[in-house]
Amino acid sequence: MNKVNFDKFDNSWYNPGSISRRILWYFFSQIFINTTFLWPMAIKRFILKMFGMKFGRKFVIKPSVNIKFPWFLEISDNVWIGEKVWIDNFVTVKIGNNCCISQGAFLLTGNHDYKKESFDLVPGKITIEDGVWIGARAVVCPGVTLKSHSVLTVGSITSKDLEEYGIYMGNPAVKIRNRIIEN
Known about the structure:
- The chain is about 15% helix and about 30% strand.
- By secondary structure, it is an alpha/beta fold.
- The chain has one domain: Hexapeptide repeat proteins (UDP N-Acetylglucosamine Acyltransferase, domain 1).
- The N and C termini lie far apart (about 60 Å).
């Protein structure tokens, strides 16, 4: 039987940006974004924009948020990102209008090919359409699209796309009912 051999791992094809940009981001992130200090939103937005993040109006980001590479993050209007959210974006994450990413949620855009001896890096973008709510400590895996107004409940894990207006629960997340929004 074959075995994994990390000596054969090679992700030289992957380029997340210059080393100087990544180092600068690390320090700015630790000081202004991934910290418990309550910096004003205007300062956070300025820092994130300076590092290439695209975002719309009324974007709210709470303390202790970990964003791997802000230049791979696109956020629309009226988006809330809760405390201790981890956006592990090796590639693009797009978040639509009026979305809520609750405390401790984890958006994961990278995985490994466990079938290959070289354990290759396998990135996959995440798309979060308008009106989505990702519950506290929920996990979204690489390559997933959460369609319009879907809900991933607290602690749930999805590695598959979620249907419009579906409410999903569990590990793996399964649809438990439709979301009905009242006036």
